Amino acid sequence: MDSCAVMRGSKSGVETRLRKGPAPHLLDIDGDTCHHILNASKHFCKPFEYKIEGLHNDLFNDFKWSTDLKGVLQEICFLTGITFTMPERFVSHRWLSNYDVSMSTLRLMDVFTIFYHAFLGREDKELYLPTIMAIYHKKDLSREVKAKLKDIQSALGQKNMTEEGRKRKQRIYEKIFFTRLDTLLTLNLYTAVLPLLKNYVITFETKTPMIHKLNDKQVAFFKKFLSCFLKPESLQGCKLAEIELNNKAKQLREKDIFHGGVTSKLMDSSNKSSVVFKFKAKAKAAYLACGLYLQKKLPMNSKLLKAASAIDPLARGHSSTLNQLKKLSSLVTNVFDESELGNYDLEVREYQLDSELPTPLDSEGKAIALDRWWAQVFAVGRYPTLAKMVKALMSCFHGPQVEGAFSVMGDVLNPKACRMDIATYLVYPDCEICPKSKKDHLCQPFWQERHSDGSCAVQTVPKSEDILQKVQGGEGCRSSYVVCKTNRTCCETGHPNEQGCLKKNHQSCTEAG
Predict the structure, then answer these.
(1) FRET partner for 68 with CA separation of 20 to 30 A, picked from 144, 248, 289, 329?
(2) DSSP 399-422
(3) Neighbours of 19 (CB within 10 A)
(4) pLDDT of res. 93
(5) Burial class (CB in 10 A: 0-12, 13-18, 19+), 404
(6) Confidence band (pLDDT; 50, 70, 90) for 428?
(7) Nearest alpha carbon to residue 27 among 405, 397, 391, 403
C-alpha cells in the first residue's frame, strides 16, 4: 500500500480497517517501494528550487492553447531538421516524469532558443545573437533557411499577448538565455541521475511476481546510487541502512561526484564561473537529501523480504535457502495451521534436492518467470504445503497495482458514494470491469462465457450497478446484445453498423455510450 494516511493511517486508514475486520493477518512489509522512489526523486530535485519544473510547466502551457504558436514551433523544427513534438507536461504527483520531460526539453532546446529569442528586448537580442548564430552553424543551415527564420522571429515579435502570456514568456526566456548555463547543467544532471531511479520503478511495475527479487534489487539500487557521491571504501563491508551519509569523511569531493558526461563537460568549459560552484553544492545536497530519504524508507532490513528471496528457483540447493524457507512459516502465519508445520519442513528439505523439477532457465539461458516456473511445480502436486506458502507470497503486490485498481474503481462505484465497500471491491476482479484500461464493454466477459449461443435480446446497455447486483446475486450478466465502443461493431453479430446487422433494435455506438 501507499504510505499516505488514507492507506496506512492508524485510526481509519485502509490497512487499519482491514486488520480490524476481515484480514487481521496482514503482513506489514512496508509501503509501496515504487512510491518511495517517486518521492525520493522529489527530494533530489528540491535543492534546485524547482526552477526546471517551472520551465516545463510554462513551456507546456505556452503552446497548449495557442494553435498559431504551435504551428510556428512546428515550422522552426522543420527548418532546423529537428523532429517536432509538443512540449510535454510535467506531472507534479509523479516526479519521475521530470526525467522524460527533461529529455524532451533538451532535445528541443535549440528550437526553443530560436523561438523565444523573438520576445527579447532589443539590447538582449543583440547580446544573445551569438547563441542563435552558434545554433545555425551547428545545424549547417543555408542562407535561405536563416532568412526564413528571421522572418518568423520578426512576426513573433509583433504578436499581441495577454498579460499572463507576456509574464510566462518572460519566465521562459530568462531561463533559456539569462540563466542558460544553470538551466542546461540542471537538465543534463536530471537526465543522467533520474534514470537510476526510473529503472527500479520499471522493474517492479510489472504484474509478474517479483517479490523474490525485491530485497536484492533494492539493496543493489541503493548501493549504486550511493556510489555516485560516496567513497567506494565507505560502501564495503558495512550495512547500508546504518551508514552515516552525513559524514563528510565518507563523501566524495564535489568535483568527483557523478554528474553525467554532458554536465561534466559543461562544468569544465566554465569551471571558474560562480554558477558552476553553486551548482556543484546543489548537486551534492541533492544526492544527500535523496540518499537519506531512501535509507529511511526502503525496507532493506525486512526479514520477510529476505526470506521471500528463497522461493527463487535459482536459489535451490543451498543451506541458506533452506533456512530462509523454514523462517517463512513463522513470518507468514495465516497460510497453514500448526498440524501442517511438520509437512512443510519436510517438503522444504525435499524440494532442495529434487532433481526431477523443471529447469528454471529457458532455451536462451534466461530465467523463467517465477509464476510460470512454480505453475509447473504445482502441476506435479508433490509439495502441497510449500505450494500454499509460495502462492501466498506471489500474491503480494510490490508495485502500484493496488493504487491502479483503486483508480479504476471510479468506473464501478456510484460517483455519489465516497466510501469503499469491501464486498464491492471483491466483485471487481471477478467481473473484470475496467473499461478505462481494457477498453472492453462492461458486460463483455460474461457475454462470452454465458451466452455463446447468442440467445439473449436485452435492448439496453446495463448500468454498472445492475451488473454488480446480478453478479453478487449469482445471476451473471444476461446481456449478450451490446455494442463494442472500441471496434464500433455489433458485439453479437460482428456487423460494423446497424444497416448490416439483422438483430432487432440494434443500438448504435453513440446510443450505447
Answers:
(1) 144
(2) STHHHHHHHHGGGTS-TT--S--H
(3) 14
(4) 78
(5) middle
(6) low
(7) 397
Angle made by CA atoms 59, 38, 262, in degrees to the nearest 5: 60
Q: What pTM was computed for the model?
A: 0.77
CA distances from 63 to 57, 69, 168, 178 (A): 10, 6, 11, 22
For the record, the C-alpha cell of 333 comes out as 502465519
CA distance 370 to 311: 9
In angstroms, rounded to a whole number, what is the distance separating the alpha carbons of residues 490 and 496? Answer: 6
213-229 burial code (b ≥16 CB/10 A, e <16): bbbebbbebbeebbebb
CA 272 → CA 15, 174, 175, 277, 278, distances in Å?
54, 22, 20, 8, 11
What is the number of other CB atoms lying within 10 angstroms of the CB of residue 484? Answer: 17
pLDDT tens sequence across 447-475: 344 444 444 434 344 444 454 444 444 44
Residue type, 271: N
Cβ proximity of 183 and 55 under 8 Å: yes
CA distances from 372 to 97, 218, 305, 350 (A): 32, 23, 21, 21
3-state SS, 135-171, equals HHHHHCCCHHHHHHHHHHHHHHHCCCCCHHHHHHHHH
Which range is least confidently modeled, 6-15, 21-30, 250-259, 424-433?
424-433
Nearest CA-CA partner of 112 in 144, 90, 96, 88: 88
- Dig out the grid coordinates for 320 from the structure: 541458506
Query: What pLDDT is attached to residue 451?
Result: 43
3-state helix, strand, coil in the chain (%, to 5): 60, 0, 35
Q: How far apart are CA 424 and CA 405, in angstroms?
A: 12
Give dist(CA 175, CA 113) in Å, integer.
10
Amino acid identity, residue 399? G
pLDDT tens for 143-180 read 999 999 999 999 999 989 999 999 999 999 999 999 99
Other beta carbons within 10 angstroms of residue 78's beta carbon come to 12
Contacts 24+ apart (CB under 8 A), 82-85: 82/107, 82/108, 82/110, 82/111, 83/107
Distances (CA, A) of 147 to 79, 141, 151, 343: 11, 10, 6, 84
